[in-house]
Design a protein that fits this description.
This protein is an alpha/beta fold. It contains ten helices and 13 strands. InterPro entries: 4Fe4S_Fe-S-bd, 4Fe4S_Fe_S_CS, Oxidoreductase_gamma_subunit, PorC_KorC, Pyrv/ketoisovalerate_OxRed_cat, Pyrv_flavodox_OxRed_cen.
Length: 352
């Protein structure tokens, strides 16, 4: 099936940029959209992603370029002025410049349960069409993942990708790999495609246009120490207490905790804050809760907890900032906890 690209830039490209965090499946959606262009829409297409360590919670960008087959895609550079942007986690706003390159011609698709005017203010969106879709809610209802819902919404936002072609590419890709999840995934794509309404914003002077700028790191291949060094162990570069999970978050119920430490040994990111204390009248290491800076929402801790002292809850129902246990507040005897490190990164006399 061939399609006509609606508008292209000066190079003849139609461009999509996905802004996400690791674990939400944006990279997969980029690959699917790339494949869709070349194999199903009779376009030339390319896709590539930009990310750091492949860790849940780290910022991820994925880029998709399309052009007619009488042209070639010979560039592999980041997309600075996309026709469509998909924002997989609204809390990315303010942490990285997701609105770079957005103007009147851009369609911005955001995973949010908020109203467009509030989202525009949060994003500081200059102008363009804003599509707000509660991908998490739809994904829960349809037993799929938010990336499938956003695939439908982003496809619709382009104006030329049909629902049939999206369904076909999903059947032929993730459907073959995960057949048991196919119906849920297709339902998610359909809801994403059908449930969207755009709100147009003109350049009313409220928020300035943002130029796209590459973030330069202090260390690169030329000057980084051999083997690499993570200066903030256990943390991610733009991590805070909100933007690194997929909708669910572990919640700690201290009264049920027997301080067995299973959560701590299971957690890959050393989120739990154990300090010297007392349990049942005896000296013991006791669990004080979670440092959510480091939590990526994998929920392994919930699975292993023997007493249901950890439960998986919808993140949007909780003020995580108030539940958050900062390890720097837990200075106990000779243990001095670092502000930004995971709980096992401590300075002890024996460690010096
Ligand atoms: S696994 Fe559960 S009971 Fe054990 S320390 Fe962790 S929260 Fe407490
Ligand atoms: S969900 Fe639990 S196991 Fe996973 S990173 Fe967060 S605290 Fe650790």
């Amino acid at each position: 099936m061939s399609v006509n690209l609606p508008i292209t830039n000066e190079h003849g490209f139609y461009e999509i940029r996905l802004e996400s965090i690791g674990g939400l499946g944006a990279n997969l959606i980029g690959k699917i959209l790339g494949e869709l262009g070349a194999l199903y829409l009779e376009l030339n297409s390319s896709n590539f992603a930009s990310y750091g360590s492949e860790k849940k919670g780290t910022p991820v960008k994925s880029f998709i370029r399309y052009c007619d087959t009488d042209k070639e895609i010979r560039i592999n550079s980041p997309i600075e002025k996309p026709h469509v942007i998909g924002i997989f986690h609204e809390n990315l706003a303010g942490k990285i410049p997701v609105m770079a390159g957005v103007d009147e011609n851009t369609v911005v698709v955001v995973n949010t349960n908020d109203e467009p005017d509030a989202v525009r203010d949060r994003l500081k969106m200059h102008a363009g069409t804003l599509i707000c879709i509660d991908a998490l809610k739809i994904a829960l209802e349809e037993r799929t993942r938010i990336n499938m819902v956003l695939l439908g919404a982003i496809g619709k936002a382009t104006g030329f990708i049909t629902l049939d072609s999206l369904e076909q590419v999903v059947r032929d890709t993730v459907g073959k790999k995960y057949p048991a999840a196919l119906e849920g995934n297709l339902a998610g794509v359909r809801r994403g495609y059908e449930d969207i309404i755009g709100t147009e914003y003109k350049d009313d002077g409220k928020y300035p246009y943002q130029e796209y700028k590459e973030v330069k790191r202090d260390w690169g291949y030329a000057n980084a120490p051999i083997g690499g060094v993570n200066t903030i162990p256990g943390s991610t570069i733009t991590n805070d207490v909100s933007a690194s999970r997929q909708g669910y978050v572990p919640i700690f119920h201290e009264e049920k905790c027997i301080h067995c430490g299973l959560c701590d040994t299971t957690c890959p990111d050393m989120v739990f804050q154990f300090v010297q204390g007392e349990y049942r009248g005896k000296p013991s290491m006791v669990n004080k809760g979670l440092d959510y800076h480091h939590c990526k929402g994998c929920l392994r801790c919930v699975e292993v907890c023997p007493t249901a002292a950890l439960t998986a809850e919808l993140e949007r129902d909780y003020d995580i900032g108030k539940l958050h246990v900062r390890n720097k507040d837990l200075i106990v005897d000779s243990l001095e906890f670092e502000d930004t490190g995971a709980n096992s990164i401590v300075n002890t006399e024996s460690g010096n």
